[in-house]
Hints:
The chain is of the alpha/beta class. The chain has helices at residues 3-11, 22-28, 56-66, 105-108, 118-127, 143-152, 171-179, 217-232, 235-239, 246-251, 259-266; strands spanning 40-44, 73-78, 82-83, 86-89, 133-136, 160-162, 165-166, 189-195, 274-277, 281-282, 286-287, 290-293.
Amino acid sequence: MDRKKFLKVLSSIPASGFATKLSDLKQITNSLPGTGLMPVLFLGHGSPMNALDDNPFVKGWKTATRFLSRPKAILCISAHWETDGTFVTAMKQPRTIHDFGGFPQNLFDVQYPAPGSPELAAEIVAMITKTSVGLDDTWGLDHGCWSLLKQCYPAADIPVIQLSLDYSRPAQYHYELAKELSSLRKKGVLIIGSGNLVHNLRLIAWEHIEEPEYGFDWALEADAKMKKLILAGDHQQLIDYKMLGKAFDLAIPTPEHYLPLLYVLALKEEQEQVTIFNDKAVMGSLTMTSLKIA
């Protein structure tokens, strides 16, 4: 069974024990007290081995979170949870998912035992009107989420939930859905998009493996254009990325690693600034480019 079919099977399993009446959900929408506006992060996550390494990319993640107010909860939109429909993890104790192969055993031994938040999950269900959001009790935290959080919040003592990517929907849909999450930023929720701006594993430059920061010309071209549009606030062209030419076709052969960027950009307030970091290519066909909005 391929990965998308597997995820579709998972998403079809009823989230037993989490059925909640709509009237009850509406009462939950004020469950988190108001705070200052939390920043939003897009983190280029790259290899799962970054969960164990102490490299410049990991240092960049840690720097981006070091001086933030302690989040009351974390909501992660990861490239590695694609579903038919939109779901949010709603279990009290999400499992650590090792959704990869071919890595050393010590990576499979890693656990990130952060608590979940059924209350926050129910609040998200209530606040999103663009679609029906399902409460999921089967997924957990995939490596697009925990590999970052293990480095940035190693104590695993902050509640973490994930929002899935509906693979049947276009980019515009994801951007508009993300805007409905904006009130969470005022309630102490740190929202993280986890993916990679350029992500084409089929074209990895194995012949340049000894050059860890090597990028193909098309990868660098697409990454540079993305950054230019991000800094200019031109979100519509980024939403319409399929119209931006051959470099973008190669950089985004499938959308799952790109869509988390759109969630983050949709949450930017007019007065906020974008800071770009970890601005490097790796293995020819990936970029670790990350950004912080605050």
